[in-house]
Amino acid sequence: MTAIVSVSNLDKYFGHLHVIKNISLDVQPREVVCLIGRSGSGKSTLLRCINFLEEPSHGSIEVDGLRVDSGGRGKEQRQLIHDLRLKTGMVFQEFNLFPHMTVLENVIEGPVIVKNTDRKQAIALAEENLNSVGMLFKKDEYPLRLSGGQKQRVAIARALTMQPRVMLFDEPTSALDPELIGEVLNVMKKVALDGMTMLVVTHEMGFAREVADRVIVMSEGELIEDSKPDELFKNPKDPRTKALIDRYRTGEQ
Amino acid sequence: MVQTQKSQAELLFDAQQRKVRLFRTYVTISWVVLLGLLIYIFSGPIELDTEFIRKNALFIAGGVWQTLFISVVSIIMAIVLALLAALGRLSTFPPIYALSTFYVSMIRGTPLFLQIFFFYLALPQLGIVFPAIWSGILPLGLNYGAYMSETFRAGISSVSKGQREAAAALGMTPLQTMRRVILPQALRFAIPPMGNDFISMTKDSALVSATGFVHEVMWRATRVGRAQFNNLEALIVAAIFYWGMTLILTFFQSRLEARLGRGDR
After folding, report:
1. Are A162 and B180 in contact (CB < 8 Å)?
2. Shortest CA gap B100–chain A (Å)
3. Cβ separation B263–A97 shorter than 8 A
4. What residues pair up with A199 in beta bridges, in sequence order?
5. Considering the entire predicted model, what is its pTM?
6. What are the pLDDT digits (tens) for B108-124?
7. Which CATH number fits domain B57-264: 1.20.1730.10, 1.10.3720.10, 3.30.750.24, 3.90.1150.10?
8. pLDDT tens per residue across span B188-243
């Protein structure tokens, strides 16, 4: 089976700070991969490099057969990045819904403006996705009137309506009140069951354990462990992984 | 009986509402008293030449359209300039940034009155002559454009980085992001100060009268006032027209603000 996402020899510097250190990573179609690690370990940066929200310093990204190398300039590179972003959907920690648009307008904005989808068709698709995240009943509300969990579910519907090949989640529940986390995780689980390939940066160990096919642990810009969740949580190989898991265990109690 | 009783929170809310309503009523009454006082002073203790007012009010009122025309055209010009200057100010290309800051600094560093005379008196010396009304509109537009660019820049900066990232992740181009995501939010932020600017503009347009070629409200008032030595009456009539215009504009501004406020923050 060929990988749907390939990260090859990726490096990222912020000034002199080396935040991603020569990382290579393959993700198979329909796979759910959770990225965990302490804050500052580079996991969010790695995720943001995949759709070039951060430009990698070295290396390349390949999604669904489209390869984009770092360091490119000009019109051709812009086109490549644009195509790459059409293949990836992203969900942010802070939701980033457009406050001047209703829920439905938020969700159809991408298809209508970027993909020139017929408006009626976009609305049909948007309503289908809003329904599957349980937010159709709020389609004419403005984001201001929604709870954090509802906003994030709309953000997931917005990303799905672009019909991406891969979904990237950047700490999707970290900005939520504890009682709202569950509804978002449930929606994500549903997206996973529908067969979407997902990369999820998260602190939710329960989710990683239950839903992920693979869990990748990062520390100081490196991948230190990459294994099935059962294995990883029962027998962490790296002492840093063990420390990380223990911290969450005590945190949960 | 339990369901008809109001909760503590509702009672508190009602009490607050009553207080607000009472305050508004008193303010309205005070306004009426102040206005009545003003009318009384000018009808009794200070004697006005009502005959003069009756004869010339219409003549002065004829300038309202000129005043509004100058203001509307100038404000449109100012908005375009302000938007360009604000985008220039946010540019990372040094010459564009420099052009924008140069323009704003030069205009804000000199009096509007001087700028108006520059267009009437200085430019003709170089053989550059605009039609009279445009020599008033151009400096007003340039001047307000420089001031408003700050408002626009603040509006654009107020839109969070996350909004740009969300747009980029959807595959929007920078132009689409600006047009669909950034500007609508920035404009909403900028509408209240822009409304204030427009209202100031209708008043500052009076400066154009000093050059003697544009027959707007102020020019007409001073003309008939000086000719018959009835400056008091003439200026009071002009003041009433300006005040009336600003009241009407303020009303429309608050309506627009309410409309644009949907879904905000």
Report:
1. no
2. 26
3. no
4. A33, A168
5. 0.80
6. 999 999 999 899 888 98
7. 1.10.3720.10
8. 888 888 888 999 999 998 888 887 778 888 888 888 888 888 888 888 888 998 99
